[in-house]
Each structure stands twice: as structure tokens, then as C-alpha cells.
Design brief:
The complex is a heterotrimer of chains A (309), B (361) and C (363). Chain A is an all-alpha fold. Chain A contains twelve helices and no strands. In chain A, helix 1 (8-34) packs antiparallel against helix 11. The mean pLDDT of chain A is 87. Chain B is mainly alpha-helical. Chain B is 70% helix and 3% strand. Chain B has 14 helices and two strands; from the N terminus they run βααααααααααααααβ. Chain B has helices spanning 12-36, 41-49, 51-54, 59-85, 93-111, 119-145, 149-169, 205-223, 225-235, 237-242, 247-271, 285-295, 300-324, 328-350, and strands spanning 2-6, 351-355. The radius of gyration of chain B is 22 Å and the shape is globular. The termini of chain B are close together. Chain C has 363 residues and is of the alpha/beta class. Chain C folds into two domains: 2-135, 3-Layer(aba) Sandwich (Rossmann fold); 137-258 and 291-348, Rossmann fold (3-Layer(aba) Sandwich). A six-stranded parallel sheet of chain C has the order 2-1-3-4-5-11, sandwiched between helices. Chain C has a six-stranded mixed sheet with strand order 7-6-8-9-10-12, with helices on both faces. A two-stranded antiparallel sheet of chain C has the order 13-14. In chain C, strand 1, helix 2 and strand 2 (65-70) form a beta-alpha-beta unit. Classes of the chains: A mainly alpha (309), B mainly alpha (361), C alpha/beta (363). Chains A and B meet through helix 3, helix 4, helix 10 and helix 12 of A and helix 7, helix 12 and helix 14 of B.
């Protein structure tokens, strides 16, 4: 075993890339849940985003348009969820699960003609000599644009949720929809917009997988990334900053165990793989033991809203 | 514009009619999809809904197979429905199903190759107990720390899946399996197998258990004080507390029952149709059962029918795939549509749409 | 044991002919062949190649062959039902294309003695109507191992393993032996992904190898993700696995090992049509055209390419076996003496590394 072969800076850099899809999808779901809606269909929206982004990028030759396509695809699928749960008052848990089932099938249908094709390459940004700074340059300054988009989104979402009126309204809707309604806010419309945003972010995460991280299209290629994104939101206690750390932890465990293997260490792969979830549960317990409100879980999470007056 | 008025009690007519309408709508939408894929939509719909039940070559085999496929879904969904009625959200049945299978299989394999009438019953107990204990984790955490059982039970699914992989590759791996991941085949170890009860049908103890669960749940909800308490807690939590229902006891009972039933389902599956612990043993029954519970309107008879309908789309979907060369993806999309329509139309049984003049609503 | 069963089966066949009866013996006018796939055809790898084989057979036999298939059949309870439904719907021969179908195949075969079952990569033939087939992928690994040994500049080569099973261990050993043979300084890193197909994880695995200095990567998993990772790194090469993965030519994909099932499917369906079908345990490779090395691109120096082609020719005409002694096991004990060739039984159960590979096979 030769652990010195692992360069921490390089490992951290690849961990950032590995975390980007679940970070994007997790940020979207965070906003959705802050608005009081639990959408378990992240996996479905991600994979639809993956194929839509891939198809658009291949069709137009532009990865940038591809990402837009991915976001639109994810949002379109989330619209089904939004209509069913917000207007037709369907149960959110069941609808979310059905959304995943439908998304997996639907994406495979669209993707029939795209197997074995290579998408247009996305260039990495270059910050000139800055990228060559040892350590920091390697970790932070040699990525593609989407990595930075995701990082900026963390800050932007934190800002909007905590420092703007829009964020206040969103949180009010998620905490107590009846009160928000009584104050005159359009609960259903706000939630629908949040759901669409969540779908678009999941779609971006999926497109990142199919256009940059892997880059290819294959059926079922998300392999559970959407479910991880869901767990991530809980781990983060609905806080964007902690979501970033969580994404690095969840995404990093795989990168770390593979690196340890290459270095010759014997790794209990499965036990390592379950550790982030166990940690998440412990975090949840500690936070809820400290008292419910510190948890950050929106009080109206998962409940349907129907205006009675 | 249209306004929705909540009905005081669900409309009996719409409760019965909405599933039929949803199926018809799915046939139309799915038919269009099949036509776009270049297949005859009428053939496809016939093969999915009709042939498994009535085709002269197939039906003798596929009718009992519907029960086999539906049994774990029904068993799990019955357990879940009790909690869902009381506002207790166990969405980690998939994990409890996996743990039940691991515990049941581990007990059976521990005796290998001994023979004995007591081995299979011990496995049944181990399976139920495994699922029960796994469900107790979120139940206890909710009781003592007020931690959300939705999130904990979901997170425990991932842990269970990793544990399953660890078992298939490690402790439970078949020592004579040529190094391949996966346990010995329990179906080929008579003392531990969940046998076919009627030759040629594939019907096993899990199907029997599913029917018992349906009847027991029905009787309990209609006649027993516990059933009343569950319904009361769901409809009026505060009134329930005043009338002496202990919320803690209810959480433990509902989570425990659903965990035990999910564990049983996993155990019957691993000792019977599936035969062994393997990395991809978990096929999402625990999640599909959530959908089945809602499609069945959380009612035992409804769940029975919903489970059979889901099984029909699985088996009919398989037939359609190889008879017509339809891609598997189109069947998944078709099932997704069916669920969407069913969930959407559910509205009509609980709400009355009314046309009203536009006002500042 | 196997041999005995075959004899018995042929005897029964002869008997059937003598009494002028059984349809199976007399050949058939038309065959319905059915395929059970473990993944979607769109996986671009394992299942995709089996489906290509099915299409080859259809092109070969035209009207005489009808095929049906089902994708993404889970390897448990569902497999048994799917197989039964196929048998009921009139399939004459059913190909089950994944190891996990071994038990269901044998169970269903017992119930349908007139239907032929062919199970890929397994070893159980409990009934006279069950045959097994597999490909000697380690022959291909020998060729790419040779290329890897010549192409590496860092003297570090990598292998992404799926699961620690004999088929994969054969591949690792063959790859390493032939790299070491042409480059005594070469070191091999093995990383286990514990999946056959998870593009993101495969990309991570390739990345981990590259970050630790590996510059030639072979994969035993099915996606193109490792090649894409090699391309991003720039100075790393790799090989197509299962399918040609031509999109990554000429580099990083410098050659490929193609699973070519067409010849086998054509042979077996043909035998059923003309009445010469018998139970077999087939383990075919380059000579039969089942393992094919895809185009070796111009990124490989001409002399290396010529050597690789010579090796392919030698394996194909039977003059060279990739496991020819002297070979020692990892612990230094002797395995094969000078000139001795590994027997199939040892290969089929191979759970040890050869001398020079570092690390242990995970238990």
C-alpha cells in the first residue's frame, strides 16, 4: 500500500466534479422542500434531463444549449408532478415515485437513437497561470463552467432564501401554507414555480452527467444519483452551505475508496458506501434532539394545500 | 373558473369509477405512444390487459403468476396503509423488505444442509423480526427524538442496500458458487424453501400471507378498537389524543406492523421465487407498494385490487415486450401514465368540482 | 460428467430418429429463437452485443428464423416467469445471456423438455436440453496486454474490475502476463468497481487510476466512461470493451475486445434447423470468431501493431495459448511448467493472481 501516491489536491479536484450532479439536483430539491413540497421524483427528472441535454447538445453541437435543454426537460417532467400535486391534490410521495418510474422509461424511449454517440466536448475553463498554482489552482481553477455555476448557485440560493423577500415568502409557504394563504400569497403558484425550479436543477444535474462527467448516453445512467440527492437535502438540514459539504462527502466517498484501492489499501467498500447515510441519520437525530426548530425541516413538508375559502 | 369543494365523505360512485376511467385514459394515451413507436396499439393493449387473463396458451400459467407477482406488493402495502391512515409515513419498506430477506436467508443458510421441519418456520420468524427491528429504528427515533420517520426510513433503504451487497459478496456468498456474488439457492434446499403449494401455479406461502393480511386488516379496521384509533388519529389527531389514544404506542404499532410485513414479504421472496440473496435482489417492491397503497385508497380490498392491477401491467407488459418487440422503456412509461391518471382522478372521489363565477379567490 | 450427459443426450436423439418421431431430431423448417437480456439493448455493451448477434442470425436465416427478446430482465423471480412465458409462446430455443439466469434456466428447462435452452457464462447443465456457452475473453486480454506493456510510459497500467470472479481474474492475469512479458518494469493497479455498469462510478475508477500515474487502462465494465476519462487526461490510452467503442478512435481507444456472439447463435440455430443440434458446453474464442480485436489504430506504433497482429494470428490458428508456462502464482509457487498449457478446468475456477501482481483478490 502506498498512500503517498494519492495527491490530496488532485483527489479534492475530482471530488468536486463527482459531486456536481448531486449538488445541482440537491439544490433544486432543497428549494422545493423549502416550499413545503416533497418530490421523490428527482431520479426521474435527472435522467430525463440527461437525455434531453444529450440530445440537444448532439443535435446542435453546442454543450451550452445542451444544458439548457436538460434544464427544460427536467422542468417539463416536474410540471407533471406540479399539476398532479398542486392542482389535483394527489399524494406527493406516490406521485414522486410514479414520476421516477415514468422518467426512467420515457428517457430510454427518447434515447433510443443516441447510444454509442460521443457528445461535443465541453472545454475546461482556463485561468491562465492561476490554474497552475499548486494546491489551490489544482483544486479550484481547472474545471468546466458548470462546476462554477453549481458553486455560484449555492451562494445565490442561500442569499435568496435568507436575505430576500422572495425567500421569505417561499419559506412562509413551506412553514404554514394556511397562514401564507391568509396573508394573500398564492401558495399553489409559488409551489409550482419552486417545483419547476427543482426540475430544472435536477435536469441540469442529469445533463452534467451525460455531457461532462461520463460523457455518453446510456439507459439508466443516473444509477441512483437522484436518490442520493434526496438524502443530501436531509443531511444538509435544508441549508445550501451544508448541502455543498454533503455533496462533497457523498460524492467523495466513492472517489476516495477507489483511490485507496488503487493505492493498494484493502477497503470494505460496502460499509464505506453506507457511511454517509448513517452519518446523515445521526446528524438528523442530533439536530432533532436539540429541538425541532433547529432542524430546518419545513413544517408543511409533504402536505397538500387546498384553499377552503 | 372551477372550484373544488371537499366532500364530507368520499363519493362511493367516484371511488369505484375513477380506477376504470383511469385505465381507459391510460389505454388511449398508451395506445398513442405505442402507435408512435410503430406498433399496433390495439394489439399492445390487448396483450397487456387481456392475454395474461384469457389467452388460451398463456392464461393457465399467468393467472396464478398474477397472484405471485402481486403478493409481496399487497403484503407490504397493507402494512404501510395502516401507518399512512394514522399520518405515520414509513417510506422505507424497501429497506425492511431487504433486511427481512437477509435475516430469513441467513437463518436458513445457517442450518444448511440440515433437514428439519422447524427450519422454514424459524426463517419466517427471522424475516418478520428483521423487518420489524429495521422499522423500529425510525419508530424509536421519532418517539424519543422527534426525528422525521419519512427521512430516516428512506435513508435506511440505502443502508440496507449496501448491507445486501455486503452480504451477497461476503458472509452469505455461496461457497460453491465459483466466486460469483450471491448466496446458495434456497429454493433448492428443501428444508428452507418456500415451496409451491399447488403444482404448476407457483403459488407459495407469501400469497397465502398476503390474503391473510388483507382479511386481518379489513376486520381490524371495521371492528377493532385499534382500527378505530388509527382512523381517528389520521382524521382528527387532537380528538384522538383526548380520547386516550397514545401516539407513541400508535407509532410503534404501525411502524412495527408495516416493517414486519415488509420483512415477511422479503423472506418469502428470497426463499421462493427469487431463491437467493444477490446484489440486485431488491427490485423496488417496497417503493411500488407505496403506490399500490395509495391506488388502493389505503383500503384493504382496494389494495388487493390495486396490487393485482400492478401485477397485470408487469406481466402483460412482459408479454407485450416479447410478442411485439416493444422496448421495456415503453412499458415503464405506460405504467407511469397509469399511475398518473389514477392519482389525478383520485381527486374526484374526495372533492366536487364546481363551476363558479370568477372572483378574487 | 458433462461428456457423459452429452453422450446420453445423443443416444436419446438417435433413438428418437429410429422411431421416426421426435420433431427436435428431424430438423425444422422454421425456428423461433428467443433471447433474455439482462440490461437494456441501449447499454452499448454486453446486451447490445448479444442483440447484434441476434440480428446477425436473422440476417443469416431470413424467413426461417423468427426472434423475440426481452430486455432488462432481473436475475431472480422475474427471470423464471419470463422464461416460462417464452417457452409457452412457442420458442424453440431460448438464449439466456447472463450468469444470474443459471438456476431459472435449469428450472424452466425441466418443465419444457422440447425447448432448447442455452445459458451464457454458466456451468450448470442439469437437463439434456440445457447447453452453456461462453467466450474466451482472456485471449483478447492477452493482445491488449501486449499493447499496454509497449505503450505505457509511466510503466503503470490499470485494470477496472467488475467483480472478483474467475472470468475477470483470467482477464487480469492474461493482461498482466503479456504486458510484463514485453516490459519487465510494468506494474499493474487493479480497482474493483463492484458493478458491471455504472458510468459515473467507472469514470471515477478511471480517474483514480489516472491520478496515480496509470497511463494505460483496460476495463472489465461495459461503458465508455473510462475512455472518456482517458481522453480528458490527454496522454492516457485505453481499449474498447464488449463493443468496439469506435467513437473514441484513434485515441484514446487504440484497440478493442469485441464480444461477437453472432457466429455462435448462427451455429446453434443452424443446427436446430438441420437437425444436428446437440447439448454442448461451448467455450469459444478467437478461432471461432467469438472474440474479436477491433481495429488497432495508428496511435499504436507499427511494430507493436504487427506484433499484436501476429499474436492474434497465433491464437486464432491454435499455435499459441495465452496461459503457456512457465508461469508462477502470486505467492511464488509453480503453476505451469515450461511449455505447459493451462487446462480449462483450472481457468474456469481461477481465483488466484499470477506472480508480479500486487494486492489481494477481495474475499
Amino acid at each position: 500500500m502506498d498512500l503517498s501516491a494519492i495527491n490530496p489536491a488532485v483527489l479534492f479536484a475530482s471530488l468536486i466534479v463527482a459531486a456536481t450532479p448531486i449538488l445541482l439536483a440537491g439544490l433544486g430539491e432543497l428549494v422545493v422542500e423549502k416550499a413545503g413540497v416533497l418530490n421523490l421524483g428527482v431520479e426521474g427528472m435527472m435522467i430525463v434531463g440527461a437525455i434531453c441535454g444529450f440530445a440537444v447538445a448532439v443535435g446542435t453541437g453546442s454543450p451550452a444549449l445542451g444544458f439548457i435543454g436538460g434544464a427544460v426537460g427536467g422542468a417539463a417532467l416536474s410540471l407533471i408532478f406540479g399539476l398532479l400535486t398542486q392542482y389535483l391534490l394527489a399524494n406527493q410521495v406516490a406521485t414522486g415515485l410514479a414520476l421516477t418510474l415514468f422518467g426512467l422509461g420515457f428517457s430510454a424511449l427518447i434515447g433510443q437513437g443516441y447510444v454509442g454517440i460521443k457528445p461535443p466536448m465541453t472545454e475546461r475553463l482556463s485561468f491562465g497561470p492561476l490554474s497552475d498554482i499548486p494546491g489551490l489552482g489544482t483544486i479550484l481553477l481547472r474545471h468546466d463552467l458548470m462546476v462554477y455555476v453549481a458553486l455560484i448557485a449555492v451562494v445565490a440560493i442561500w442569499y435568496v432564501l435568507n436575505r430576500t423577500r422572495l425567500g421569505l415568502i417561499l419559506r412562509a409557504v413551506g412553514e404554514n401554507h394556511d397562514a401564507a394563504h391568509a396573508l394573500g400569497y398564492k401558495v399553489v403558484r409559488i409551489r409550482l414555480l419552486a417545483i419547476l425550479f427543482g426540475g430544472a436543477m435536477a435536469g441540469l444535474g442529469g445533463a452534467y452527467l451525460s455531457l461532462i462527467r461520463v460523457p455518453m448516453w446510456t439507459v439508466g445512467m443516473t444509477s441512483g444519483a437522484g436518490w442520493i440527492a434526496l438524502a443530501l437535502v436531509v443531511f444538509a438540514a435544508w441549508r445550501p452551505g451544508r448541502l455543498l459539504l454533503g455533496a462533497w462527502l457523498f460524492g467523495g466517498i466513492t472517489a476516495l475508496q477507489l483511490n485507496l484501492q488503487v493505492a493498494g489499501a484493502r477497503v470494505p467498500v460496502e460499509y464505506l458506501q453506507m457511511s454517509p447515510y448513517v452519518i446523515t441519520i445521526l446528524v438528523l437525530v442530533i439536530m432533532s434532539a436539540k429541538g425541532g426548530r433547529a432542524l430546518g425541516a419545513p413544517a408543511a413538508l409533504g402536505r397538500s394545500f387546498h384553499a377552503t375559502h | 373558473m372551477i372550484r373544488l369543494e371537499k366532500r364530507p365523505t368520499p363519493s362511493r360512485f367516484w371511488v369505484a369509477a375513477t380506477p376504470l376511467i383511469a385505465v381507459v385514459l391510460t389505454m388511449i394515451a398508451g395506445g398513442i405512444m405505442f402507435a408512435i413507436l410503430g406498433k399496433n396499439p390495439f394489439d399492445a393493449i390487448r396483450i397487456i390487459f387481456w392475454d395474461p387473463l384469457f389467452d388460451p396458451n398463456m392464461s393457465a400459467y399467468s393467472r396464478p403468476q398474477l397472484l405471485v407477482k402481486a403478493a409481496p406488493l399487497i403484503l407490504i402495502a397493507i402494512g404501510l396503509s395502516l401507518g399512512f391512515r394514522a399520518g405515520i409515513w414509513n417510506i422505507g419498506a424497501e429497506g425492511q423488505y431487504i433486511i427481512g430477506a437477509i435475516c430469513g436467508a441467513a437463518v436458513g443458510l445457517a442450518f444448511y444442509p440440515a433437514a428439519g421441519w422447524y427450519i422454514f418456520p424459524l426463517m419466517v420468524i427471522a424475516g418478520a423480526l428483521g423487518g420489524f427491528l429495521w422499522a423500529m429504528i425510525p419508530a424509536m427515533l421519532r418517539t424519543f427524538f422527534n426525528t422525521s420517520e419519512i427521512l430516516v426510513s428512506l435513508l435506511l433503504v440505502y443502508v440496507a442496500q449496501a448491507l445486501l451487497a455486503a452480504m451477497a459478496l461476503g458472509r452469505l456468498r455461496n461457497p460453491e458458487g465459483g466466486g460469483f456474488p450471491g448466496s446458495r439457492n434456497l429454493a433448492q434446499y428443501p428444508a428452507a424453501s418456500n415451496p409451491e403449494l399447488f403444482a404448476g401455479t407457483g403459488i407459495h406461502w407469501g400469497v397465502v400471507a398476503a390474503f391473510i393480511a388483507v382479511i386481518a386488516a379489513y376486520v381490524m379496521l371495521q371492528r377493532h378498537i385499534l382500527g378505530f384509533n388509527i382512523k381517528l388519529t389520521g382524521q382528527a389527531p387532537r380528538a384522538a389524543r383526548f380520547s386516550g389514544v397514545s401516539p407513541v404506542a400508535l407509532v410503534l404499532i404501525c411502524m412495527g406492523t408495516s416493517g414486519a410485513l415488509a420483512g415477511l414479504a422479503g423472506m418469502f421472496e428470497v426463499a421462493g421465487p427469487s431463491g437467493k440473496i444477490s446484489i440486485d435482489f431488491a427490485s423496488g417492491y417496497g417503493f411500488t407498494a407505496i403506490i399500490v397503497a395509495f391506488l388502493g385508497r389505503l383500503n384493504p380490498i382496494g389494495i388487493l385490487l390495486a396490487g393485482l392491477l400492478m401485477a397485470l401491467t408487469y406481466i402483460g407488459g412482459e408479454l407485450a415486450q416479447f410478442m411485439l418487440g416493444l422496448p421495456k422503456a415503453s412499458i415503464q412509461a405506460f405504467q407511469g401514465m397509469l399511475l398518473f391518471f389514477l392519482l389525478a382522478l383520485d381527486l374526484l372521489s374526495n372533492y366536487r368540482p364546481r363551476l363558479v363565477k370568477r372572483e378574487g379567490a | 460428467m458433462m461428456f457423459r450427459r452429452t453422450l446420453l443426450a445423443s443416444a436419446a436423439l438417435g433413438l428418437g430418429l429410429a422411431f421416426g418421431g421426435a420433431a427436435a431430431a428431424a430438423g425444422m423448417d422454421k425456428v423461433k429463437a428467443c433471447f433474455v437480456y439482462v440490461g437494456p439493448i441501449g447499454d452499448g455493451g454486453w446486451t447490445f452485443q448479444h442483440d447484434q448477434g441476434r440480428l446477425d442470425a436473422m440476417a443469416e436465416f431470413g424467413d426461417k428464423l423468427e426472434t423475440m427478446y426481452q430486455e432488462s430482465v432481473p436475475e431472480g423471480a422475474d427471470a423464471e416467469r419470463v422464461l416460462t412465458q417464452m417457452a409457452l409462446s412457442g420458442c424453440n430455443i431460448v438464449f439466456t445471456t447472463s450468469f444470474g439466469y443459471m438456476d431459472p434456466t435449469n428450472t424452466v428447462a425441466a418443465k419444457f423438455p422440447n425447448v432448447k435452452f442455452e445459458h451464457a457464462t454458466g456451468y450448470k447443465r442439469d437437463h439434456a436440453n440445457v447447453s452453456t456457452y461462453d467466450a474466451r475473453f482472456y485471449e483478447g486480454r492477452a493482445v491488449i496486454g501486449h499493447i499496454a506493456g509497449k505503450m505505457t510510459k509511466s510503466n503503470k497500467i490499470g485494470y477496472i474490475g467488475s467483480f472478483p470472479i474467475p472470468e475477470v481474474i483470467q482477464g487480469i492475469n492474461s493482461y498482466f502476463l503479456h504486458a510484463r512479458k514485453v516490459n519487465p518494469d510494468v506494474e499493474l493497479s487493479v480497482v474493483w468497481a463492484y458493478t458491471w455498469f455504472d458510468p459515473a462510478k467507472e469514470a471515477d475508477a478511471a480517474k483514480a487510476l489516472i491520478e496515480q500515474g496509470v497511463d494505460v487502462i483496460a476495463a472489465h465494465t461495459d461503458s465508455t466512461a473510462p475512455l472518456a476519462e482517458a481522453q480528458k487526461a490527454g496522454n492516457v490510452v485505453g481499449f474498447g470493451q464488449a463493443s468496439d467503442m469506435a467513437a473514441y478512435k484513434p485515441s484514446p481507444r487504440v484497440a478493442s475486445i469485441i464480444d461477437n456472439w453472432g457466429p455462435y447463435y448462427i451455429k446453434r440455430i443452424g443446427a436446430l434447423l438441420d437437425g444436428t443440434y446437440e447439448q454442448t458446453a461451448s467455450w469459444a474464442g478467437m478461432p471461432e470468431g467469438e472474440v474479436v480485436i477491433g481495429e488497432i489504430t495508428e496511435a499504436v506504433p507499427a511494430d507493436v501493431k504487427a506484433e499484436a497482429e501476429a499474436m492474434i494470428a497465433a491464437i486464432t490458428d491454435g499455435s499459441y495459448h495465452p496461459f503457456t508456462g512457465p508461469i508462477k502464482k502470486q505467492d511464488g509457487s509453480d503453476w505451469l511448467k515450461e511449455g505447459e498449457v493451462a487446462d480449462d478446468g483450472t481457468l474456469a475456477g481461477m481465483m488466484f493472481y499470477v506472480e508480479g501482481i500486487k494486492g489481494d483478490i477481495p474475499k
